[in-house]
Amino acid sequence: MEIAGQQVSRHGVRIVAIWAVLTAIAVPLIVLVLGPHLPPGKMSAEASDQTSANTVLTAVVAPIILIVAVNIVYSLVVFRARGDAIEDGAPIHGHAPTVLAWVLLTSVIVLALAGWGSYTLVQSARGAGGGQGPSPADLPKGDRTALPIQVIGQQWAWTFRFPTYNAFESRQLELPVGRVIAFHVTSLDVTHSFWAYELGVKADAVPGVDNVAFVTPRKLGSFNIRCAELCGLWHGHMALHGHVVSASDFVTWVAEQKAANAQIIPDLGPYQRVYFPEPKHRAG
Amino acid sequence: MVMPPAVAASGTPGNANLTLQTVASIGFGPHPDWVSYLVKTPQGKWVHSTILDVPANSLIHVTILQYDTATGLRNPFWGLPEGTVGRAKVNGKAIPILNPDLASHTFAIPELGVTVPLKGVADKAKNQCSVAPCTLAEAHNTITFTFRTGKRGTYRWQCFVPCAAGFILGFGGPMQSLGYMDGLLHVV
């Protein structure tokens, strides 16, 4: 098969035309139809940022995936070898302008995404839910009135301590809507990862470390909590549902928790930002 | 891993009885020095297992003969008994809370919201048990409580005390093994 000159140009135009049509259809569909359903959703400001980032990334890579896919499918259909003889095609020599354009275009796309992704990670999503360690550098608006909640991972449960409410501890988690929350994520034993999926938070829980992750819940409802770090026999059971509630319901819930846990509060000891899993008694 | 045998609670649907014991070292099998639970069959035989069958939508009356000494809770929060019908009792006396340092183990079914701390016997108690199954003549505390089951299902239960002697920070070995300090509760 001879592939040269005018014939190559004709195939190239066809491929580009097919790609352009598919891209023109796919990108708006991704942005307008698929985007709102991409994870993690819009339950919090941070989750919304992550959903937007996922939408942009998907929309940007769609044309790249399509150009590759169109080339493969077009080649399979148009250049399919027929008959008994199987022969090598004619050698294709390098085409410097095409190679240069491809390298430049993909480099620009990758570098632009890296820059934009870094901006989103650091500025827009304030650590993208992964926490900023013990000394957060990028504080959200309203951080001074943020509600601190300590998230304590342990084999195999999550408990939550509220230092501004007599430092009571609970195995349940309720959050007031519209208020900045400062999760102080830590662990009592091994490394866990606090994953509040719909809130867009996935912060490592490391013994001896206070990993601060900010989140501002926007919508009422429940969210899933999981451990995202393989942590032992019952790792898969470190799951529960948290709830975003109204400010008044949150006040009521806090009062109920303080009353239910009043007797254990003195034994909990003073609030600490970190814990160290020192050996207990005989176990060392 | 060999799955321990399942042991059914005695009693009737609606009201079932479970009797367990905890020992500092099981004394036999592949890990004779591991801390462990045992369960009593309806026929009165002690079995090395933590796989428990209990009826659905029933009150489960639990008696735990606690022969081990205290290790202490890493998280004092688990010293608060929760999820029981009525108060948990130690040697017949109701306990609203257990001093976290006195805990030897916990019996906890997190998915059912049940946590009961188990008070350890004194370090200097006389006639301490050395080989399972232990007998009533040996030093122990008797912890009793009741919890309610709901729909059928399988739930994990575990100890929250880092009680695995000889392992880093007390976690590992028996704390990570079915048949020792972890189990399954089959609600049938």
Your description of this structure?
The complex is a heterodimer of chains A (284) and B (188). Chain A is α+β, with helices and mostly antiparallel strands. Chain A has 2 domains: 9-79 and 108-124; 143-268, Sandwich (Immunoglobulin-like), CATH 2.60.40. Helix content of chain A is 39%, strand content 19%. Chain A is built from 5 helices and 10 strands. Chain A has helices spanning 5-34, 45-78, 96-124, 247-260, 265-268, and strands at 147-154, 157-162, 168-170, 174-176, 181-187, 192-196, 201-205, 211-215, 221-227, 240-245. Chain A has a 5-stranded mixed beta sheet, with no helix packed on it. A 5-stranded mixed beta sheet of chain A has the order 4-10-9-6-7. In chain A, a hairpin with a 5-residue loop joins strand 2 (157-162) and strand 3 (168-170). Chain B is mainly β and 188 residues long. Chain B is 0% helix and 38% strand. Chain B is built from no helices and 14 strands. At the A-B interface, loops of A face loops of B.
CATH class of the largest domain in chain A: Mainly Beta
Largest interface: A-B, 29 and 37 residues
CATH topology of the largest domain in chain A: Immunoglobulin-like
Biggest sheet descriptor of chain A: 5 strands, mixed
Kindly name the structural category of chain B: mainly beta
Categorize the overall geometry of chain B.
globular
Specify the CATH architecture of the largest domain in chain A. Answer: Sandwich
What is the CA–CA distance across the termini of chain A?
Answer: 76 Å
Query: How many whole angstroms does the radius of gyration of chain B measure?
Result: 15 Å
Proportion of helical residues of chain A: 25-40%
Q: Please provide the ordered H/E string of secondary-structure elements of chain A.
A: HHHEEEEEEEEEEHH
Q: Biggest sheet of chain B, in brief?
A: 8 strands, mixed
State the end-to-end distance of chain B: 24 Å
Strand fraction of chain B: 35-45%
Sum up the overall morphology of chain A in one term: elongated
Strand arrangement, major sheet of chain A: 3-2-1-5-8
- Structural class label of chain A: alpha+beta
Integer average pLDDT of chain B = 94
- Helicity range of the residues of chain B? under 10%
Outline the low-pLDDT stretches of chain A. Answer: none
What oligomeric state is this?
Answer: heterodimer
